[in-house]
Structures are given as C-alpha cells and as structure tokens.
From TrEMBL:
PROSITE patterns named among the record's database cross-references: MRAY_2
Organism from which the protein derives: Fictibacillus terranigra
Main location, first listed in the record: membrane
GO molecular function, one term: transferase activity
Name recorded for this polypeptide: MraY family glycosyltransferase
Location in or out of the cell: Cell membrane
C-alpha cells in the first residue's frame, strides 16, 4: 500500500470528523431531522444528513489519492445524483417511485459508460453472452445493492459499522488481486464512514439518513461491478452477496415474514434482526456489536470463498445458509413457531436416543 493512499484515508477520516459538528448544526437549522415513531428505536429528534459528511470525506480523498486521474466520470455523476436524491429525501421524504426513478437514472449513467456484465459462466454448463440483458442485469444489480444498506439502518452505528466492515473486506480482496483502483476507492470510503461513525455510534449525535445509506449502497454496487467487470462466473455474483450477508439476510427473512403473516412485502414492521435481538434482552450497543460480529463472519467467508475450489464454495454456501436459518429460528425472525430445522434436529436426536442400545 503506497503512502499517498494512506494519507488519503487519514485525510478523509479527519475531514469527516471536523465537518460533522457543522453538518449537525446545519441539519438542525434546516429541520432535516428524523422524528421518533412506534417503528423506530430512537426516542428523540435526530439530525440527518450525516451522509453529506461521508460524501465530503470521499470527495477529498478522491483528489488526495489521485483517483481523479482515472476516467470515472459516469460513476461520479451517478454518485452525485444518488447523494442529491438522498439529501432531498431526508428533507422532504420523497415517494418510493421518485427515489427509484433517480436510482434507475444513476444506474443508466453507469451502464452507458460500458461498465456492464456481458458474459456469465455457469459451472458445468457453459458461458453465455447476455447481449441486451447485460444492461438490464447491471441496472438491477446497482439498484438492488444501492438499497441494501438502507434496510439495516435501524440502530445507532449499525449501518455505518457494517459498511466499514464491507468496505475493508472489499479493499482486502482488491489488494490480494492487485486492483489498486478498487483498493483506493474502498479505503477512502471506509475511512470517511469511520469518521462518521465517531458521531453515530450509540448514543448517536446524527444519523446518516438516506443520503448516507444510498450513497454507501451505490458505492458498494459500483465496487463490486468493477470487480466483476465484463465476464463473471455464476459464483462471482455470490461473493458481494456474501459480503453483504447481514442486509441480504435481514431483507430475505423480512419478505418471508411478511408473506407468512399475509402482509404486503413493503409493509414496515419491528421484526428485523436488530429488533429481535433487542427483544431478547440485548442492549442497544450489544445488539450492534453482535451484528458487527456476524458481518465479520460473512466477510471472512467471502475471502475464503473466492480462493476455494468449486466444491469448497458449495460447502461454504450451504454452511452459511444453514447457519442463517438456525439463527432466524432461534430469534424468531419469521415467527416464534417457525422452527423447521430445529424441529427436525430435535426429532433426529430423539430418534437416535430411542434407537440407542441400553448401556445397562
């Protein structure tokens, strides 16, 4: 790692730490705040726009690291658009359709630069040219990942901490593969987010808002695209999904929970991962730290997954899925009566005990 990159990361962190008190005052003055309600955990009005500070740190790091010399115009314009959408939404609460339209436009800008996935290799089957589906696949990927971080932004320091873990993981994998551009971008974003975390960890002084969560999600989608660029295997898609294991896990079971309870998929509730852990008696901080630990497990699995054999990768995926299912059943992420795997386990153990020979 070169000295310029280290300096860029340190400067990005420092810029956010210094700027955040001013952003807090500005958000309060302009009434860009998050008010408590029955679905939210915080009990007082909190300023938003923490994402503005994160973006400011990234912009400074972008120039200090020398990334401005690379041709990233489409990606930069898309990022600015995403941040503007987030800022307006934090102030005026845009409709879901307007936010989605803005995200689609940002994704189209990126795809128009040629940063698309054109080939897909499926093990034991062959390689497929996606053709016109390349743009659709790329746009869907950007939009899906862009919204991922927003889904876990429910506790002080949760989304920011998980984002730092994700970015550091991406940086490590980029460094191992010798990709300096992804390494530089990931470290600058991680450092900026860490600077924000100084004000966001419980008890938080400011929230990142949609400005921060959408920008971080967008950044992760772009970094993963740069790593997948043009030709990927089916399992290559799995790596960024594993890295984003916490939000993907929480969202997947939220959909299952709402379908099982016959509620609209978009209907908000207090059954998310962090809600369930708090209901089990964990404190705010312990809940966040437990989810940090789970995120680190996913990150380690992603690094191991990338260097594994085909069958090793299959074992890792099955192991992760089984672990997540057991966790979901233990904490009641779908319903307190939803325990198919634990039921089968108890039934199997019971059968083994019945069939075991009497020691006497």
């Amino acid at each position: 790692m070169n000295v310029q990159l280290i300096i860029a990361a340190v400067v990005s962190f420092a810029v956010v730490v210094v700027a955040m008190p001013f952003i807090i005052k500005l958000a309060v003055r302009l009434n860009v705040t998050d008010k408590p309600n029955q679905r939210k955990v915080h009990q007082k009005i909190m300023p938003r726009w923490g994402g503005v500070g994160i973006f400011l740190g990234v912009v400074v790091g972008y120039f200090v690291s020398g990334l401005y010399e690379m041709q990233l115009t489409g990606i930069i314009v898309g990022a600015v658009l995403i941040v503007l959408i987030g800022m307006i939404d934090d102030k005026y609460e845009l409709s879901a359709r307007v936010k989605l339209a803005g995200q689609i436009l940002a994704a189209l800008l990126v795809a128009s630069t040629g940063l698309t996935i054109e080939l897909l290799t499926i093990p034991f089957v062959g390689t497929f040219h996606l053709g016109p589906w390349a743009y659709i696949t790329t746009i869907f990927w950007i939009i899906a990942i862009t919204n991922a971080i927003n889904l876990i932004d429910g506790l002080d320091g949760l989304a920011a901490g998980v984002s730092v873990i994700v970015m550091v993981t991406i940086a490590i994998m980029a460094g191992l593969n010798g990709n300096m551009m992804i390494l530089s971008l990931a470290l600058v974003i991680a450092a900026s987010t860490a600077g924000f975390l100084m004000y966001n960890f419980n008890p938080a002084k400011i929230f990142m808002g949609d400005t921060g969560s959408l920008f971080l999600g967008y950044s992760i989608s772009i970094l993963s695209l740069l790593g997948l660029y043009k030709s990927v295997t089916l399992f290559s898609f799995v790596v960024p999904i594993i890295i984003l294991g916490v939000p993907v896990f929480d969202t997947s079971f939220a959909i299952i929970r709402r379908m099982a309870n016959k509620k609209p998929i978009s209907a908000p509730d207090k059954g998310h991962l962090h809600h369930r852990l708090i209901n089990l008696g964990l404190s705010h901080r312990k809940t966040v730290l437990v989810i940090y630990g789970l995120s680190i497990v996913f990150s380690v699995a992603a690094v191991v997954f990338e260097s594994s054999t085909l069958w090793g990768s299959v074992v890792i995926v099955i192991g992760l899925l089984l672990m997540l299912e057991v966790i979901a059943e233990i904490i009641g992420l779908v319903h307190h009566k939803y325990r198919p795997v634990l039921f089968l386990y108890k039934k199997f153990i019971g059968t083994m005990q019945v069939n075991s020979p009497d020691k006497d």
